[in-house]
Every structure is written in structure tokens, then in C-alpha cells.
């Protein structure tokens, strides 16, 4: 007979102690239970009304699990702790009254103030900006009819299909609890153990391992609402909708070595980039678009449109551009605004409603619960950055941090002592009327629809849609991430999952992480591609706000430097002269040029391109500097634009950069490698134009294809 704990005794807290005390396996706590000790029969899905129905509030296991998770960290956000933000304006560019009664989308030209917060998911507030991670993209619209919070990410799909698994996902990804390392990194055993046992994550993992996981700038980051919402028009007609932000500057990332180096040089790289750009008048812009699916077409796709681990391919469901977002003002106080801003997917306005997306259904509970804990009570809406511009009238009173002073004796409805106010509004009066869609009836069940169980088709579609450079970077990322995993069994399981996406992908990863290549023939047979998911075609050609270093020493050619600087600034670039010492350096003809950075306070990874002007005295000094050689070599290795004129061409050739053939026509250019060289520049405008073109391409990926390329 098993022993039981007597009143006043402390229950054993581990299996070994329980065994010594004579507890049986049945009593040893080896089954998953609630905090009340109730054993749980299923932990993969929330309780829903039918397989595709809404989540039921009676699901006590989900509520307990997510509530505990929401209150785990105070006051720092549990996720998205490290972030940055800015104020701006949203302008509707196409009236959408046919599709939605949302007031801020009712007429072209209508403007709405916004606040946007960008963030990393896993790291703490003190982690570095350039860690490989999903980025948050949350927008608060201060509309005339109330606040609308669009809370999304820079990746359109998520790791899990049901919110009940969110605590497990984040627990696995966070620093391991016994050592509290690593910080802001998924390159460790617990994360990949969870992912290897959660095949629905395979799709998003490929996105995260791609260059989208290490964004160059918040200003060069796409945004997605991720979940499926509804538009509802003035007559109550509804349709499914997904939201998109498309950046004016294109979608660009860092290379992995570069991201690691930036983390050491400037852990605030993305935050500083956003703040500086707005401060200099380079206002970030995005196009706002929607994908819409009519109710009648809900089941006409080979994926479930409610599944948050799937995209609606733009080739099948085009993105309709309906607005423009511009960020034009930095916060006045970082804590008061960026840290205290509170987002919640449940903050919607008339014309926007919810779907039965199971991840969204869970978020509708979790976000409000989190804000109450983090911001000290239910009155967080009165903090200035969260305060709506629409008037607020209701019978809510008191609670912690209440600021509103409500006058009068009435705080209830119905009443006769206050003229029965505030009263409800009809749809015609602007009242929020829930979409009257059909609720799918069915038995209470912890399960999911059959289409949700296809974990690999869209993962394969993503892989097939990438260019060769993008595939190389993804493989290198997988080698790094899984290379940090000590458990061989976890690495083997993960490679087996990738093998169900593509055999060549799995074989290449297996080779780099020390496990056997799995057998061929297990991959998905899905052969569709979606060019829209690739970053390769998003370069806009502009160099607006791009940072360019000019490396020079005393005795440089003043005319060459001045001509290049003038052309770059005219094209919108930010130019900084980098030399050995701060102050000024003198050109060969006596011009004094201010030095913005020295070799200690700067690095190649903080710039998008570099130019070295000629001048024999300058080049002779630079030739003896190992720091200059490293600067140029890193620029070349990271595929950034490089230009050299006059005697600087010889300096560049002396570095023997892979793919550049010394002496093969010094007046020619290696444009395909993003290197512009001219030993006797007669037309600096033409040289500058070629350099600007190379910068506008973001990277010269052709360098990765040269036979003797620099090792990654």
C-alpha cells in the first residue's frame, strides 16, 4: 500500500525522495496535472466547440496554464521584453467601406495617429538587438471610434497552432532554468527538443533560420498580423482577412557573422538605427495591405485558413494595398511610452472582428491578463500612451492606479438617477456588433481539424521559394543552432523532421551537425512555390539612410573624396569619414575634413558600404594598418558595396580578396561583385553612380559564388 502525506507534512518534490518514502509510481506525480492535482488527458489543444469552433471559456486547464504563464515575470514583459518604438501616422489610401465599417478605413486620405513598437521575442530587456529571433511588429491605431491594436510579427506564421502550447514554447526557448543560459538564443537543447517533438513548428523554423531572423533594420522589416481576423461591413456582411506591412526600403537582413559582431560593437544597433533615422528625417514607411477571403471560399484551399502555422500564399490570395504608415516622431520618454504601451489583439473597433483561429482565441484572453499583471491593475488604459482619443464613458470605477475622477452618484445600468446614461449604441450609432456568423456546433473536444495536421507542405513551399544565397544562409544557421545542441537524439529528430520537407535540405543539415543522413523518399511531394516569401526581389535600389564609411588618412585626394561624398549625400546616404584619430584630417591640397569615427569606435559591420579615395600619402599610411585591412576584408566577406579610386585600387588589390583578379584592367570594374574600382577617375560622377547602384542592391551575393570564397 502506498504512503500518503499526513496533514502538516510537506509533500515530496522529486521522484527519488518519493521512492525512498515508499510512494508508488501512481503517486509519484509522473502524470501531467493541474495545479490542483487533477490529471490531464490531453495537452495539445484547447477545448473547442467542434474541431474548428471557438475556444470554450470552461477550459479550466487552458485558463490555469495561460494565467500562470502570463504572471510569471513582473514587470518585464515575459516575451517581447526588448523593444523600441515611435509615433507616426496611418493614412488610408483606398476607401474600404464595401468590406469593413472600420471608420479609419472609410475614406482615402483619412489619417489616424499611431504608435508602433518593434521587439525581439525571447531576450530580456538587456539582450542584444541582433540575436536571431522573431521580431514583434505591434501597431496601436488611435481611431476616432476607439483604439485598434494590430499585434503581429515580422514572420507571417507561428510556431504552434493552439495557444495552450504557448507557455511550453517560450519555456523551451528561454534560458534553461538550471543555468539561466543562453540569453536571447534558441541555440540550445531545450528549444530544439521541444521543436523536434512539435512538427507543426517546422514551417516557422525555416522562416526563423532564414535571413528574416536577423533583420538589418526595423525600417527594412515586413510585418504580418499572423492571425486570421474578419472584416465586417455596415450591413453585417463578413469576410476573412489577414494584415500586412510592406516596407518602403525593402526587406533586408544581416549575415550571421555580421550580426554577432554587431552584438559586440553595438548591442542597441536596431534601436539606435530607428531613433537616428527618425531624428534625421528619414521617416520609415510601410504600405498597409490586406488579404481577404469570402466566407463561401473558406474551404477552397489546400490549407486551413484558420491555421496560424500556414500562410495564405500571395499568388493565390493577393495583397490589396489600402494604406500607408509613416513613423515621424521619437518617444519623449522611453519608459513612459515604449515600456508602458500595452497591446491586446482584443482591442478592435467596429468593422474588425475575430475568427476561430485557435491561436488568436487564446491571445484574446492572454494579452489582457498579462497587462493587468505587468502594469499594476486594470487601469492601464489610462496611461497616456494607451489612452484612446475617443471619449470613454462607462461604469468602471476604482482599482489600482485609477486616474479618472468620475463625478456623480451613478455607476450602474439601468438607472433612473442619471438619465440611464451611459447607454448602448446601435450599429447605426457606431456600436460594436459582433459578427453574426454561424457558430460551428459539435461536441466539446480537444482536437484539431484534419487540414491542420499537414505540417510539411508549406514548409517545403518556403524552401522551394528561396534563392541559392538564401538557402545557403538557412543551412549555415541550422548548422549553428543545431551545432550547439548537445543531445544527439534531438539533432537526429530535427534532421528527420527536415527530411519530411526536403531530402537535400536534411542531408545538408545532417552533414553539418554530426548525424547520419536519413533515407530519401520521405519528403512532402508538395511542389508549389511562392516567390513572395523570398527577400531576394525586394531591393528597391534606393540608398536613402544607408550608412557609408569613407576611410582616409592625411594626404588623401580631396577632390575624389568631396565628389563621392556629395553624390552619396545627394542620393540620401549617411556618410561618415573614418580615420585613425578623431578631429580633422588634411587632404593633399590642404582641405580639412572632419573625422566622425576612428577605428576603435567603429567597425565595418556598422556600415552598408565603404569608399577609399586615392592620395599616395594617405594610401601609404593605410597600407600599414591591420585595422583597415580587417575593415575592408569584412566588408567584402559580408558582400557589401566597396569603391576605390586612384592609388586605393592598388591597396584593395593587395588584400587579395577572393574573386578579384589583380591587374586585370585596373580601370575596369568588378560590378558583378559589388566592387567599383578606377585607378584614374576622369569622371567621379560616373564612379559614384556605379557605387550607388551597388549600394542599392543591398548585397553582392555573387561573391558567395566565387570559387575561392571567404569561409563563412
Automatic annotation (TrEMBL):
Lineage: superkingdom: Bacteria
Gene3D superfamilies: 1.20.1370.20, 3.40.50.880, Catalase core domain
Top-level class of the enzyme under EC nomenclature: oxidoreductase
Active site as annotated: 80, 153
Catalytic reactions of this protein: 2 H2O2 = O2 + 2 H2O
GO cellular component, one term: cytosol
A UniProt-annotated Pfam family: Catalase_C
GO molecular function: catalase activity; heme binding; metal ion binding
Catalase core domain location: 33-421
Keyword Oxidoreductase: yes
EC number(s) on file: 1.11.1.6
Known cofactor(s): heme
Cross-link (3'-histidyl-3-tyrosine (His-Tyr)): 344-367
Chain residues that bind heme: 77, 117, 166, 363, 367, 374
GO biological process: hydrogen peroxide catabolic process; response to oxidative stress
Keyword field contains Heme: yes
Keywords: Heme, Hydrogen peroxide, Iron, Metal-binding, Oxidoreductase, Peroxidase
Family: Belongs to the catalase family. HPII subfamily.
UniProt function note: Decomposes hydrogen peroxide into water and oxygen; serves to protect cells from the toxic effects of hydrogen peroxide.
Name recorded for this polypeptide: Catalase
Amino acid at each position: 500500500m502506498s504512503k500518503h502525506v499526513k496533514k502538516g507534512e510537506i509533500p515530496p518534490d522529486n521522484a527519488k525522495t518519493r521512492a525512498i518514502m515508499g510512494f508508488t509510481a501512481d503517486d509519484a506525480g509522473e502524470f501531467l496535472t493541474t495545479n490542483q492535482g487533477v490529471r490531464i488527458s490531453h495537452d495539445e489543444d484547447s477545448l473547442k466547440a467542434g474541431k474548428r469552433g471557438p475556444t470554450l471559456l470552461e477550459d479550466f486547464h487552458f485558463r490555469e496554464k495561460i494565467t500562470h504563464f502570463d504572471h510569471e515575470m513582473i514587470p518585464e514583459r515575459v516575451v517581447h521584453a526588448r523593444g523600441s518604438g515611435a509615433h507616426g501616422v496611418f493614412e488610408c489610401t483606398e476607401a474600404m467601406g464595401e468590406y469593413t465599417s472600420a471608420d479609419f478605413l472609410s475614406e482615402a486620405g483619412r489619417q489616424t495617429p499611431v504608435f508602433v513598437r518593434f521587439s525581439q521575442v525571447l531576450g530580456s530587456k538587456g539582450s542584444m538587438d541582433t540575436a536571431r529571433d522573431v521580431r514583434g511588429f505591434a501597431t496601436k491605431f488611435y481611431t476616432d471610434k476607439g483604439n485598434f491594436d494590430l499585434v503581429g510579427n515580422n514572420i507571417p506564421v507561428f510556431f504552434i497552432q493552439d495557444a495552450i502550447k504557448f507557455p511550453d514554447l517560450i519555456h523551451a526557448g528561454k534560458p534553461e532554468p538550471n543555468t539561466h543560459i543562453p540569453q536571447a538564443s534558441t541555440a540550445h537543447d531545450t528549444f530544439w527538443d521541444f521543436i523536434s517533438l512539435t512538427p507543426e513548428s517546422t514551417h516557422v523554423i525555416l522562416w526563423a533560420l532564414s535571413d528574416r531572423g536577423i533583420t538589418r533594420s526595423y525600417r527594412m522589416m515586413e510585418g504580418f498580423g499572423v492571425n486570421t481576423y474578419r472584416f465586417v461591413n455596415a450591413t453585417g456582411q463578413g469576410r476573412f482577412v489577414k494584415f500586412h506591412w510592406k516596407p518602403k526600403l525593402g526587406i533586408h537582413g544581416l549575415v550571421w557573422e555580421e550580426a554577432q559582431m554587431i552584438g559586440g560593437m553595438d548591442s542597441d544597433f536596431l534601436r539606435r538605427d530607428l531613433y537616428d533615422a527618425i531624428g534625421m528625417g528619414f521617416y520609415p514607411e510601410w504600405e498597409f495591405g490586406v488579404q481577404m477571403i469570402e466566407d463561401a471560399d473558406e474551404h477552397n484551399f489546400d490549407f486551413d485558413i484558420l491555421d496560424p502555422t500556414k500562410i495564405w500564399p500571395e499568388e493565390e490570395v493577393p495583397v490589396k494595398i489600402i494604406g500607408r504608415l509613416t513613423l515621424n516622431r521619437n518617444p519623449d520618454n522611453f519608459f513612459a511610452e515604449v515600456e508602458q504601451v500595452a497591446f491586446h489583439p482584443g482591442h478592435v473597433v467596429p468593422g474588425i472582428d475575430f475568427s476561430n483561429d485557435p491561436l488568436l482565441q487564446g491571445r484574446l484572453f492572454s494579452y489582457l491578463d498579462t497587462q493587468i499583471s505587468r502594469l499594476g491593475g486594470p487601469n492601464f488604459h489610462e496611461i497616456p500612451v494607451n489612452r484612446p482619443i475617443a471619449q470613454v464613458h462607462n461604469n468602471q470605477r476604482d482599482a489600482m492606479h485609477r486616474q479618472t475622477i468620475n463625478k456623480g452618484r451613478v455607476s450602474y445600468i439601468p438607472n433612473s438617477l442619471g438619465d440611464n446614461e451611459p447607454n448602448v449604441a446601435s450599429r447605426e450609432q457606431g456600436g460594436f456588433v459582433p459578427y453574426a456568423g454561424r457558430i460551428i456546433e459539435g461536441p466539446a473536444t480537444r482536437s484539431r481539424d484534419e487540414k491542420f495536421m499537414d505540417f510539411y507542405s508549406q514548409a517545403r513551399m518556403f524552401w522551394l521559394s528561396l534563392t541559392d544565397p538564401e538557402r545557403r544562409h538557412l543551412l549555415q544557421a541550422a548548422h549553428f543552432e543545431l551545432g550547439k545542441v548537445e543531445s544527439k537524439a534531438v539533432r537526429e529528430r530535427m534532421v528527420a523532421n527536415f527530411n519530411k520537407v526536403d531530402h537535400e535540405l536534411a542531408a545538408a543539415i545532417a552533414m553539418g551537425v554530426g548525424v547520419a543522413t536519413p533515407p530519401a523518399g520521405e519528403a512532402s511531394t508538395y511542389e508549389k512555390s511562392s516567390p513572395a516569401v523570398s527577400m531576394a526581389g525586394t531591393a528597391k535600389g534606393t540608398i536613402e539612410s544607408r550608412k557609408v564609411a569613407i576611410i582616409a588618412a592625411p594626404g588623401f585626394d580631396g577632390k575624389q573624396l568631396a565628389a563621392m561624398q556629395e553624390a552619396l549625400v545627394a542620393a540620401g546616404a549617411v556618410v561618415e569619414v573614418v580615420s585613425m584619430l578623431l578631429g580633422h584630417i588634411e587632404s593633399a591640397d590642404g582641405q580639412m575634413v572632419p573625422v566622425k569615427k576612428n577605428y576603435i569606435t567603429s567597425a565595418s559591420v556598422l556600415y552598408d558600404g565603404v569608399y577609399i579615395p586615392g592620395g599616395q600619402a594617405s594610401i601609404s599610411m593605410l597600407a600599414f594598418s591591420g585595422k583597415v585591412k580587417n575593415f575592408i576584408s569584412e566588408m567584402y566577406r559580408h558582400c557589401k558595396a566597396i569603391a576605390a579610386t586612384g592609388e586605393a585600387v592598388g591597396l584593395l588589390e593587395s588584400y587579395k580578396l577572393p574573386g578579384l583578379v589583380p591587374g586585370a584592367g585596373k580601370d575596369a570594374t568588378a560590378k558583378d561583385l559589388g566592387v567599383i574600382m578606377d585607378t584614374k577617375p576622369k569622371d567621379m560622377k560616373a564612379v559614384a553612380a556605379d557605387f550607388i547602384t551597388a549600394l542599392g542592391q543591398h548585397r553582392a551575393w555573387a561573391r558567395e559564388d566565387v570559387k575561392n570564397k571567404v569561409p563563412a
